[in-house]
Write a structure and sequence with these properties.
The complex is a heterodimer of chains A (about 120) and B (about 900). Chain A has 4 helices and 3 strands. Chain A is α+β, with helices and mostly antiparallel strands. In chain A, strand 2 and strand 3 form a beta hairpin. In chain A, helix 1 packs across helix 4. By secondary structure, chain B is an alpha+beta fold. In chain B, about 50% of the residues lie in helices and about 15% in strands. Chain B is built from 26 helices and 23 strands. In chain B, helix 6 crosses helix 14 and helix 11 runs parallel beside helix 22. The chains are: A alpha+beta (about 120), B alpha+beta (about 900). At the A-B interface, helix 2, helix 3, strand 2, strand 3 and helix 4 of A face helix 1, helix 2 and helix 4 of B.
C-alpha cells in the first residue's frame, strides 16, 4: 500500500459531521456536497474527494441519511442525499461533542478567549 | 423510522449487489465529470478525487457485502474441496444424515407425546387431567386416569366451581352407519360443559347445551369436527340439521367445531355427542347396570380448567374424600377406601400414571437415537480428520503463505458446517418417512392427520446438524491448524504427531463401545420377543377364530334364542374342509371371565388365597377347538347329558389349589349354597392364560356346560372356530355371512385370536424391531468407521510398508500388523461398551422378558460379532497395503 498524501487530515469523524451539516440545509448530490464543504472551508479542509463516498455509505447504513435518484439542474441523473430525523439528532450530538473537543484543545493551546 | 432506512439500505446492497455497484460507478463518474468541468482539467479532477478503485472498495467495505464476500469465498472453497472427493463427501453426509434423521424421527414422536398440547384448545396450560390411585388389586396400587360416573359426580360436588369440570369418554370403534365395511368414526361422548371448559368455539352452528345432556332423556345431537365436515360433507354449510348414523343410532348435526380442534387425545375425534346419549354398555360388562350408576365402568376422563386467580389447593383432598365415600357406598365388597385423587397436566404422558409400553419405548428410543447420533458424529469427525490429515501439506503451504489461523479454522469450519447442512436436508427427508413409520409402528391404531414434518422438526434437524458440524469442525480446526510447518511441508500427508492418531483411535474405540451397547440392547429385545412369543398360553392362538355378535339397542334376543342360532351356525361349519373344530363359549378366551361363589366340602371359593378361580361355560367341543388338552379324565360327554348330569372340568392349577394333592376327579362342587346340587369333576384340563399373555402365576379356572341356570353367565356368547391358516380368510367371510343371515339385526365381529392378542405382543415386537434396526445401523456406521480409519492409516504408511516388504516382510506379517493394530483399538472399545452395558443395563430391564439386562451370553455374542466385523473391515485395506509393490511405495510421497 502506498502512503497517500493528504492535503489536510481531518479529525476522525469530522467528515461525517460536515456531510450531515451540509445536508441539513438541502438535499444534494455527492459532488455538490464535496463542493459545498470545500467552498465553505475555503479549501482548507478539502480531503481526497473520493473518500466522501465511503462516508456517504456509512451514514446511509446508520440511517442518518437516505438517497434517491433524481435529475440534476444540468439534466443528468444523479443520486441525491437527504438527511433523516435521526441524522439531525446525530448532527446535534456531533456538534456539541466537537465544540467541547475544540474548546479543550483551545485551552491546552492557551488560546481560550479571555474576556 | 430512520434505523429502518438504514436496514433497508443494507438489504438493498445485499440483495442487488450488481445494481449497487453500477450506481456507485455512475455516481463517481458524474462527480469526476462535474469536477473536470469545474477545474478545467480531467487530470486535475482525477487527482483531487484520488484512486477510484480504492474508494469504491472502501465504500463496499462499509456494506454487508464485504463479509458476504468472504463467506462466499469460504463456501466456494469448501464446495470445491468437497466436490474433489465425492465418495468421501457422500459417506460423511450419509453417516451424519443417518444420525440426524433417526433423531428427527424420534423427535417427531416425542414432540407429539410430551411437548405439544392438544391443538385448538385455549390456554392448555390451565387444563388439568385427573388420576386416581386405586388400591383394589391386592398387589401394588395402580394409578390411572379413568373414573366412574358416580366418582365424577362426587368430584363435581367437591369442586368450588363445578362449572370448571367436564367429563368425556371415547369410542374409536364406531362406524358411520351399520354396513359391515362402513368407515370408522371416532366418537367422543362428553358433558355439555366440554367445549366451554376447553375454550373451543364452533366454526358453524352451536355446541350442545345442558338441556340436551340430561341423563335418562338425552337429545340425540352431534357436533362434528372441521376435518370430518370437510371429509364427509365436503364443507357444505347446510350440514346443520342433517342426521348422521353411528351404527344404528342417529344424531342430528347441530354444529361444527373450530378448525384444528380434534379433542384431547392422540387420536383426533370426528364427532362429539352428549354424554347422556351414549349407547348402553356393550357385551363385556358382566353386570348390566346402567353406565352412570355402575361403579365398575371406569372409562370416563375428567378435565378441569384451573384459572391462575382461583387455584384451589385443597380440592384434591376434598375430591379424595368424596371419591372414597362413593367407593364405600357403591362397592359390593372390598371398597377402595384408600383411593387418592391427583391432578396433572393436559399432556397425559406427563401425568402421574404408569406410562404405557409405547411411552417407555419411545423415551428409550430417544436415548438410543442419541447414541446413534454420537456414533455418527464420531465417525464423521474421524472421516473429516483423516481427510484433513491428507491435506496437511496444502494447509502447511497456506500457513506458510500467511493465512491467519482464524481464517484457516474458518475455512475448515465452513466445510464441516456445509456438510452438516446438506446432511440436515437429507435427514429431514429421511425423517418425513422415518417419523411416520415410527408413528405407525408405535401407535398403529391411530390415524394421524397431521404431517410429520413441520417448522419445529426442521429447526430441530438444522440445530442438531449445525451443532454437530460446528463441534467436529472445531475439533478438526484445533487439530489441524497448528502443524509443525517444516515437518508438514516435508512429509506431506503422512501421519504427524501421535496425539492425532490417538484422537482418531479414541473415536473408533468410542464407536465400537456404543455399538456394543446398542447391539446388546437389540439382542436382548430380540430374545425377549422370542421368549414372549414362545410362551404357551394354552390356546391355539394362530388357528382360533373368535366371533361375537352385537345387537342394536333393544333388539338382542333372549339367551336361549341366541344360543340356538349360534348352534345352527356352528353346525354348518363343522364339516367345512379346513375347519378343525367349532365350539361355543360364554365368554371369549382371555377377553372375559366370570366368578361365582362355590363350595367344596368345608371350603368356599373365598378360602383359596389371593387368586379367585374363574369359570367359563363351554360346549363339549371347546377343548378340542381351543387347543386345550384334557390331561386326565375326560371332557364333556355331550351338551345335553353334561348339563343334565352336572359335569365340570378344572384346570391343573385349580386341581392343585382346591384339592391339594387329592384326586379331583369325581369330587363334588356346589354352587349357590352348600345344599344345592352337586357338580362332579370329570376331567383335568391343561392350564391356559386367563387374561394376559404374560401372567406371573397360572390362574385357577374351571369349565361348566352351557345353560346352567345357577350361574350368572352361563349362556353362549361367543363362537369359536379353529381353522387352518390357509382357509381362515374364507372362513371368516363365510362366518360373517352366516351370522348375518341368522341374526339380521346384528353386526358380527370375527377376529383371529392372534390379532386379538396382538396389542400384548406388539410392545415386544416393537422393541425388538426398532432396537435391532438401530443397532444394525450403528454397527454399519461403526464398520465404516473402522474401515475408513484403517484405510487412511494404511495410505499414510505406504512407504513404511514398502520398506518392510523390501526388507523381507511377508504379506502375512503386514496383514497381522495392520489388522492387529486396528483390533487393539476395537477391543478397548468393546471393553468400554460392556462396561456401559453393566452400568446402564438397569434402564431397559423393565422392557425385557425372560432375560436379564446383563446376560453374559448376549454380551459374548455381540462382542464376538463386532470383533468379526472389525477384522473384516480392517482386512481389506490391510490386504491392499500388504500387496503394495515396494518400488512404487518407496517412490511414493
Amino acid at each position: 500500500m502506498t502512503p497517500r498524501e493528504r492535503k489536510s487530515e481531518l479529525l476522525p469523524g469530522t467528515l461525517d459531521m460536515l456531510v450531515l451539516k451540509t445536508l441539513s440545509v438541502a438535499p444534494l448530490h455527492g459532488y455538490a456536497i464535496a463542493q459545498h464543504i470545500e467552498r465553505l472551508s475555503r479549501e482548507v479542509l478539502s480531503v481526497e474527494q473520493g473518500s466522501l463516498y465511503p462516508a456517504l455509505e456509512r451514514l446511509q447504513r446508520a440511517g442518518y441519511i437516505t438517497s434517491k435518484w433524481g435529475t440534476s439542474p444540468t439534466g443528468r441523473r444523479a443520486r441525491y442525499y437527504t438527511i433523516t430525523a435521526s441524522g439531525r439528532r446525530q448532527l446535534g450530538q456531533e456538534i456539541s461533542r466537537f465544540d467541547s473537543v475544540a474548546l479543550a484543545i483551545a485551552r491546552v493551546l492557551g488560546r481560550e478567549a479571555r474576556d | 423510522m430512520s434505523w429502518l432506512d438504514g436496514v433497508r439500505h443494507r438489504l438493498h446492497t445485499l440483495v442487488r449487489p450488481g445494481a449497487y455497484a453500477r450506481e456507485l460507478d455512475e455516481e463517481m463518474a458524474h462527480h469526476l465529470e462535474l469536477d473536470a468541468m469545474q477545474q478545467g482539467s480531467e487530470a486535475r479532477a482525477k487527482r483531487r478525487f484520488g484512486s477510484r478503485a480504492f474508494h469504491k472498495e472502501e465504500t463496499r467495505r462499509m456494506t454487508w457485502l464485504a463479509s458476504f464476500d468472504v463467506l462466499r469465498q469460504d463456501l466456494s472453497y469448501a464446495w470445491r474441496s468437497l466436490a474433489r472427493s465425492p465418495g468421501h463427501t457422500a459417506l460423511v453426509v450419509a453417516t451424519l444424515a443417518l444420525g440426524i434423521g433417526v433423531n428427527a424421527s424420534v423427535f417427531v414422536v416425542l414432540d407429539r407425546l410430551y411437548v405439544r398440547p392438544p391443538a385448538g384448545v385455549a390456554h392448555p396450560e390451565e387444563l388439568r387431567r385427573f388420576w386416581i390411585t386405586h388400591y383394589t388389586s391386592r398387589e401394588a396400587p395402580e394409578t390411572w386416569e379413568g373414573m366412574s360416573h358416580p366418582q365424577y359426580r362426587a368430584l363435581v360436588g367437591a369442586a368450588a366451581d363445578p362449572s370448571s369440570l367436564t367429563l368425556y369418554t371415547t369410542d374409536w370403534s364406531e362406524r358411520l352407519g351399520h354396513a359391515g365395511d362402513a368407515p370408522k368414526v371416532r366418537a367422543v361422548y362428553a358433558t355439555a360443559s366440554y367445549f366451554r371448559v376447553l375454550g373451543v368455539r364452533p366454526a358453524l352452528g352451536r355446541f350442545f347445551v345442558p338441556d340436551e345432556d340430561v341423563i335418562g332423556r338425552p337429545t340425540p345431537v352431534a357436533v362434528i369436527s372441521h376435518r370430518f365436515w370437510r371429509r364427509v360433507f365436503g364443507g357444505d354449510t347446510t350440514v346443520l340439521g342433517r342426521t348422521i348414523a353411528l351404527g344404528r343410532r342417529e344424531y342430528t348435526v347441530i354444529g361444527v367445531a373450530a378448525r384444528g380442534f380434534g379433542g384431547l387425545d392422540l387420536q383426533e375425534a370426528d364427532v362429539w355427542i352428549p354424554l347422556a346419549a351414549q349407547p348402553p354398555a356393550t357385551w363385556w360388562t358382566a353386570d348390566r347396570g346402567s353406565w352412570f350408576e355402575n361403579p365398575n365402568t371406569v372409562a370416563y376422563l375428567a378435565i378441569q380448567r384451573v384459572r391462575a386467580e382461583a387455584t384451589d389447593a385443597s380440592f384434591e383432598q376434598r375430591a379424595t374424600a368424596a371419591i372414597r365415600a362413593v367407593n364405600l357406598r357403591l362397592a359390593r365388597r372390598n371398597p377402595d377406601t384408600l383411593a387418592t385423587v391427583a391432578r396433572g397436566p393436559i399432556i397425559a404422558a406427563l401425568g402421574p400414571g404408569k406410562p404405557g409400553a409405547e411411552l417407555v419405548i419411545s423415551t428409550r428410543l430417544a436415548a438410543v437415537a442419541l447414541i446413534v447420533l454420537v456414533i455418527a458424529f464420531a465417525n464423521t469427525t474421524n472421516l473429516l480428520l483423516a481427510r484433513a490429515n491428507r491435506r496437511r501439506r496444502e494447509i502447511a503451504v497456506r500457513i506458510a503463505l500467511g493465512i491467519s489461523r482464524w481464517r484457516l479454522a474458518r475455512l475448515l469450519l465452513t466445510e464441516t458446517v456445509l456438510l452438516a447442512f446438506v446432511a440436515a436436508v437429507v435427514a429431514l427427508l429421511a425423517a418425513a418417512w422415518g417419523g411416520s413409520l415410527l408413528r405407525s409402528l408405535l401407535f398403529p391404531e391411530i390415524e394421524w392427520y397431521r404431517s410429520t414434518i413441520d417448522v419445529r422438526i426442521a429447526w430441530f434437524a438444522l440445530g442438531v446438524a449445525l451443532s454437530a458440524g460446528l463441534l467436529s469442525g472445531i475439533v478438526i480446526a484445533i487439530q489441524v491448524s497448528r502443524p509443525d510447518l517444516t515437518i508438514a511441508l516435508k512429509t506431506g500427508e503422512r501421519e504427524g504427531g501421535s496425539a492425532r492418531s490417538a484422537l482418531r483411535a479414541g473415536l473408533v474405540a468410542a464407536q465400537a463401545a456404543l455399538s456394543v451397547a446398542l447391539l446388546v440392547g437389540a439382542l436382548l429385545f430380540v430374545v425377549s420377543l422370542r421368549n414372549v412369543e414362545s410362551l404357551d398360553i394354552g390356546f391355539n392362538r394362530h388357528e382360533l377364530l373368535v366371533a361375537h355378535v352385537s345387537f342394536a339397542e333393544g333388539e338382542d334376543p333372549s339367551d336361549e334364542v341366541f344360543d340356538q342360532g349360534l348352534q345352527r351356525v356352528a353346525a354348518r361349519f363343522e364339516d367345512r374342509p379346513g375347519v378343525k373344530g367349532v365350539a361355543r363359549a360364554s365368554l371369549p378366551p382371555m377377553r372375559g371371565f366370570a366368578f361365582t361363589t362355590f363350595y367344596v366340602g368345608a371350603d368356599s371359593s373365598d378360602s383359596f388365597g389371593k387368586v379367585m378361580p374363574s369359570y367359563t361355560a363351554v360346549s363339549p367341543s371347546f377343548f378340542r377347538t381351543a387347543g386345550l388338552e384334557v390331561r386326565r379324565g375326560r371332557g364333556f360327554s355331550d351338551s345335553v347329558s353334561a348339563q343334565a348330569s352336572h359335569e365340570m372340568l378344572v384346570n391343573e392349577t385349580m386341581a392343585k389349589l382346591v384339592w391339594r394333592g387329592a384326586d379331583p376327579i369325581g369330587q363334588c362342587v356346589r354352587f349357590r349354597d352348600r345344599e344345592s346340587s352337586c357338580f362332579r369333576v370329570v376331567g383335568i384340563v391343561e392350564d391356559a392364560r386367563r387374561f394376559n399373555v404374560i401372567e406371573d402365576t397360572p390362574a385357577p379356572q374351571y369349565y361348566v356346560p352351557l345353560g346352567i341356570a345357577e350361574l350368572g353367565s352361563g349362556f353362549a356368547g361367543t363362537l369359536l372356530v379353529r381353522a387352518d391358516p390357509g382357509t381362515q380368510r374364507a372362513v371368516t367371510r363365510e362366518l360373517a355371512t352366516a351370522l348375518r343371515a341368522e341374526f339380521p339385526s346384528a353386526t358380527p365381529d370375527i377376529e383371529l385370536m392372534t390379532d386379538v392378542l396382538e396389542p400384548e405382543y406388539r410392545p415386544w415386537r416393537l422393541g425388538a424391531t426398532l432396537f435391532s434396526g438401530l443397532g444394525i445401523l450403528a454397527l454399519l456406521v461403526a464398520a465404516i468407521g473402522i474401515y475408513s480409519n484403517v484405510w487412511y492409516a494404511v495410505a499414510q504408511r505406504t512407504r513404511e510398508f514398502g520398506i518392510r516388504m523390501a526388507l523381507g516382510a511377508r504379506i502375512a506379517d503386514v496383514l497381522r500388523l495392520v489388522v492387529g493394530q486396528s483390533l487393539r483399538v476395537v477391543v478397548i472399545g468393546i471393553a468400554g461398551g460392556l462396561l456401559l452395558v453393566l452400568l446402564g443395563g438397569g434402564l431397559i430391564a423393565s422392557l425385557l422378558f425372560g432375560i436379564g439386562p446383563r446376560d453374559p451370553r448376549t454380551m459374548l455374542v455381540v462382542s464376538g460379532s463386532l470383533l468379526a466385523v472389525s477384522v473384516l473391515a480392517a482386512f481389506f485395506p490391510a490386504w491392499r497395503a500388504a500387496r503394495v509393490d515396494p518400488t512404487i511405495a518407496l517412490r511414493a510421497d
